[in-house]
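Need residues for this backbone.
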């Protein structure tokens, strides 16, 4: 099971999100409810989803003095009406935390669910589904965690943990071969050198210069397959660019090692999750 990033890395985000929504107080709940009233609610799936973000929901409710007992785990598959957590405590506290808790669970479960669809689409091939840096500012570690919950694998966390020579680097330097050579000469020896290529000729140039991996960007399956053949195990091959659920299987069948999909994080639809009021509580 994927490991949730350390609490200290996401707690400020939870606190900021709750403060943004709450402001000076929940005007509606304060107008309608007795401060001493207590309640019980159920956090539940409304569709088939891969669950993610429950620990963050629990933290949201804890910050409002409400208990949240999880009955599912991140990475679990849930179907419509499956309970994910039981929430108990002050009625106002439950309603104050509702939207913020749902925002985290819906967003992260949406990414995990979308990732699972891509992973299932390439089942039976050697290709792995990996993410990109196209993440929501401030949410990167959480969104990449959600990708792992869905069965995908993380690419670079940032600019610091890999050398990836992109088209603008190549344009600035002059050629992909020169860019790879410079990376080999000046870059950290602990980092793999990966170069973006758009043709078989560029791929051969990058390989001859010593690239460890090639990123074949926005090319049809026949070009990708030709590059896979040319590499002959000399380098890891990644395909990227406009990958969809309709095209990913054909790309996987070319023999690539990885398929990077920006849509896992930048275009995943929110999962259908709701908080349903169950009853008043006397405890």
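Answer:
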């Amino acid at each position: 099971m994927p490991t949730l990033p350390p609490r200290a890395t996401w707690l400020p985000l939870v606190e900021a999100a709750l403060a943004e929504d709450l402001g000076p107080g929940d005007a509606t709940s304060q107008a309608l409810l007795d401060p001493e009233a207590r309640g019980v609610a159920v956090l539940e799936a409304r569709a088939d989803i891969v669950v993610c973000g429950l620990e963050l929901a629990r933290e949201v409710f804890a910050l409002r003095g409400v208990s949240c007992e999880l009955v599912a785990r991140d990475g679990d598959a849930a179907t419509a009406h499956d309970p994910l957590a039981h929430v108990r405590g002050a009625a106002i506290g439950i309603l104050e935390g509702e939207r913020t808790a749902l925002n985290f669970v819906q967003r992260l479960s949406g990414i995990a669910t979308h990732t699972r669809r891509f992973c299932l689409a390439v089942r039976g091939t050697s290709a792995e589904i990996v993410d990109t840096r196209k993440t929501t500012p401030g949410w990167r570690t959480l969104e990449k965690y959600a990708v792992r919950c869905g069965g995908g694998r993380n690419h670079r966390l940032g600019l610091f943990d890999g050398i990836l020579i992109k088209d603008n680097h190549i344009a600035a330097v002059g050629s992909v071969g020169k860019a790879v050579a410079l990376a080999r000469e000046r870059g950290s020896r602990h980092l793999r050198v990966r170069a973006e290529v758009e043709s078989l000729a560029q791929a051969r140039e990058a390989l001859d210069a010593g690239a460890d991996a090639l990123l074949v960007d926005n090319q049809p399956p026949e070009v990708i397959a030709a590059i896979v053949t040319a590499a002959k195990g000399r380098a890891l091959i990644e395909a990227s660019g406009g990958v969809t659920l309709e095209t990913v299987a054909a790309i996987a069948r070319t023999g690539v090692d990885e398929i990077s999909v920006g849509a896992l994080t930048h275009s995943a639809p929110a999962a259908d999750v709701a908080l349903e009021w169950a009853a008043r509580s006397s405890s």
